[in-house]
Amino acid sequence: MDILDKIIEHKKKEVAERKGLFPIKLLENSIYFNSPTVSLKHYLQCKDSVGIIAEIKRKSPSKGNINPYVDVERTSIGYMQAGASVLSILTDNTFFGGNNSDLTTARKFNYCPILRKDFIVDEYQIIEAKSIGADAILLLANVLTKEECKAFTTLAHQLGLEVLLETHTLNQLEYYLPETDVLGINNRDLKTFTVNIERSLELAVHLPNSVVKVSESGIKTADDILLLKENGFHGFLMGEQFMKHAKPEKACYELILQVQHALNLKTVSHEN
Ligand SMILES: O=P(O)(O)OC[C@@H](O)[C@@H](O)c1c[nH]c2ccccc12
Predict the structure, then answer these.
(1) What tens digit of pLDDT does each residue of 209-266 get?
(2) pLDDT at 271 > cutoff 80
(3) Is 237 close to ligand 1, i.e. is its CB under 6 Å away?
(4) Can you tell me where the transmembrane regions are (predicted)?
(5) Is the CB of 238 under 6 A from ligand 1?
(6) Which residues are part of the catalytic machinery?
(7) 3-state SS of the chain: helix, strand, coil percent to 5?
């Protein structure tokens, strides 16, 4: 049994418990349940932003503790002030140290798209995502059947949420549907933890330009982002590279400055 199997087994038990503790009727009473959402797809296509999806990740199965006591209010606001386009908040507690209130805290203080990063195995979690203030959910092709992905996408849209579909292999690109909002390519193999951003480049050539694409995991430098941008990526999901610093928002700010500087230089040299 690999780590992904363990996570999913645990998640199914957790969801069954939560359904008992917080029935759907209760979730529907949340102030966020009927609130309008902010479009991830739209924000990722804004021409004047770099496209960073900045993540709050306290720990991970591959790295252990990264920043267990992060101040979510300060860091989420700081990420947005740094020029990030989207926030990604891990809400899984057992393996990633996050929780639903991290997302709600980020929601209270920011007007931007917020991705709920968790392992969705049940429709209940999609309703829960809306009730805690998320704008978008992650669906993993690694974990779900094509039919489940389709049904979960339909429910997400009914609730006003967008879907980031995460893939890792060529076969999984078949999960992409016309109604999928954003396609993610995870550079990390969730079963072995090997990370290589080449994975994004290899898979992207099989996709039409019109697909909004996000490269996820293992992104470290401005050069990584420039390379991915040249290959048609709109979004860059980054966790550890920021979170390993005491002030993740400062690392985010510096990286965005570097990318903007490189992009400006490029425009100037094209003009000459
Ligand atoms: O910390 P990194 O290497 O920058 O990766 C961020 C993000 O892509 C990663 O946390 C992630 C991608 N897909 C996931 C699915 C579940 C949990 C976590 C993830």
Answers:
(1) 999 999 999 999 999 999 999 999 999 999 999 999 999 999 999 999 999 999 997 7
(2) no
(3) yes
(4) none
(5) yes
(6) 55, 57, 117, 166, 186, 216-217
(7) 45, 15, 40
Ligand 1 atom at minimal distance to the Cα of residue 66: 1
Spatial separation of the C-alpha atoms in residues 222 and 61, rounded to whole Å: 26
Token pair of 177 as six digits: 């549907």
Q: Is 117 in the pocket of ligand 1 (CB under 6 A)?
A: yes
Split at pLDDT 50, 70, 90, the class of 267 is: low
- Sorted by where each starts, the structural domains of the chain and their CATH numbers stand as 3-33+40-271 (3.20.20.70)
Name, in order, each residue with C-beta under 8 angstroms of 190's C-beta and a sequence gap of 6 or more.
3, 4, 140, 142, 168
3-class DSSP state for residue 59? Answer: strand
DSSP string covering 74-139, please? HHHHHHHHHT-SEEEEE--STTT---HHHHHHHHHH--S-EEEES---SHHHHHHHHHHT-SEEEE
